[in-house]
Specification:
The structure is a homodimer of 243-residue chains. Chain A has eleven helices and no strands. The first copy, chain A, is mainly α and 243 residues long. Chain A has one domain: Heme oxygenase-like (Heme Oxygenase, Chain A, Up-down Bundle). The radius of gyration of chain A is 18 Å and the shape is globular. Chain A starts with 7 loop residues before the first helix and ends in a 14-residue tail after the last helix. The interface between A and B is medium-sized, with 29 and 30 residues. Chains A, B: This is Pyrroloquinoline-quinone synthase. Chains A, B: It catalyses: 6-(2-amino-2-carboxyethyl)-7,8-dioxo-1,2,3,4,7,8-hexahydroquinoline-2,4-dicarboxylate + 3 O2 = pyrroloquinoline quinone + 2 H2O2 + 2 H2O + H(+). Chains A, B: Pathway: Cofactor biosynthesis; pyrroloquinoline quinone biosynthesis. Chains A, B: InterPro entries: Haem_Oase-like_multi-hlx (IPR016084), PqqC (IPR011845), PqqC-like (IPR039068), Thiaminase-2/PQQC (IPR004305).
Chain lengths: 243, 243
């Protein structure tokens, strides 16, 4: 474990080094997804399981919002809820994700029921919500820093999927377009907050640990998908079975 | 979803049917483990990850103990803490599991540090502790009912591992011997409690859901091991690497 206090710049460098080693753009399932090596049922399984992550992000952000001490911080964080929940029915990130699962031919009621979810997806997503509820506000904010790395993965994913899958259209992937501007705005704020407020060795350790934890959440979601839907015979009892 | 109230006997039959379909003795990794198809490093990975489950069981039981309404119930549940934590240093189930990881040549401090844990293991185990904290006492007690099925898996595991692995001895597997009597005692109590107290359709639904949830915890722990340690190249960043 580290024992020297880092400058804000060195802390940022260590955070970026964690992303360079642990962000899920390096996961074999992500590469298979955007290289076009998956079939429609496997892409459906990805979208169905990822839906639970998308649908839980507002719960995660509301959990953190409820713990933030100032109006300025709450206003900043409230924007994330607006991005995901929208201002009217059918708007916002969660609705756009359902538009994606619709476009892949999944029954919306089945997706929303979460019945076909992999247990590994459920546990990873809920670990994220619990982390934000139970850890320090500083660690909770730091756990959002995977968004530092998301513009790259989003552009890889969108271009790769459009190029490689005839069952996917630009419209189906509409979820990702606003994320390309929202994610950098959000991660700029979170990074500046973390660099300003992680002022002790323990706080910096907690911040680096929070980002490692969050990378583990995203990584293990792809582990569960790769295990269940790429190797035949591994779909756990009760989970979604592509038709 | 079911809508008819079940007799206690039909409820027990449905609980046993869940075990027959979802208990992890059916998992490919369990079969590989006890059929002797794993190498020493893979068995080490199993023991290292399973340690976090063992070490968290007393936390799970203490969490439930704190929510039980009567002295009689608390006395009953306290026995589980005694089984796992023992009455003196070096006694109890957690210490016996460390004896197993010692016997497999794992460094005890490394095992206890949890540094090499798979994220999938961590999230599944913590989901169990959170479930017992957050759901009804009835559902929390029902989630322990996987022990109805554990004597079979323990005898399969012990005989299979002794027969197939020259690096494993009866002494290394000492953890399992007392479980053969403790698990039936505990599950008899939990089953009787659930049959007596699940008196509405909603309560019976919650009880059946709790056992499915718990089967998912155990199953997804083996998914994570099978994915990371059986297929080459899948060990996630930061997790245990067999030497």
């Amino acid at each position: 474990m580290r024992d020297a206090l880092l400058s804000p710049e060195s802390l940022e460098a260590e955070l970026r080094a964690i992303g360079a080693e642990r962000y899920h753009n390096l996961h074999p399932f992500h590469r298979a997804l955007h290289d076009g090596r998956l079939n429609r049922g496997q892409v459906q399984a990805w979208a169905l399981n990822r839906y639970y992550y998308q649908a839980s992000i507002p719960a995660k952000d509301a959990t953190l919002l409820a713990r933030l001490p100032t109006a300025a911080l709450r206003r900043e964080w409230r924007r994330r809820l607006e991005d995901h929940d929208g201002d009217a029915p059918g708007t916002g990130g969660v609705a756009r994700w359902l538009h994606l699962t619709d476009g892949l031919g999944l029954d919306r009621a089945y997706v929303e029921s979460l019945e076909g979810l992999l247990p590994g997806t459920r546990f990873a997503v809920e670990a994220y919500v619990h982390f934000v509820r139970d850890r320090t506000v500083l660690a909770a904010i730091a756990s959002s820093l995977t968004e530092l790395f998301s513009p790259t993965i989003i552009s890889e994913r969108v271009s790769g999927m459009l190029r490689n899958y005839d069952f996917i259209t630009q419209d189906t992937l509409a979820y990702f377009t606003p994320r390309l501007t929202q994610a950098p705005r959000d991660s700029d704020f979170a990074l500046a907050y973390v660099k300003e407020h992680a002022r002790t060795v323990e706080q910096q350790r907690a911040v680096l640990g929070a980002l490692k934890f969050k990378c583990g959440v995203l990584w293990s979601m792809l582990d569960a998908l790769d295990y269940a839907y790429v190797t035949p015979g591994n779909i756990p009892p009760g989970a979604f079975r592509p038709s």
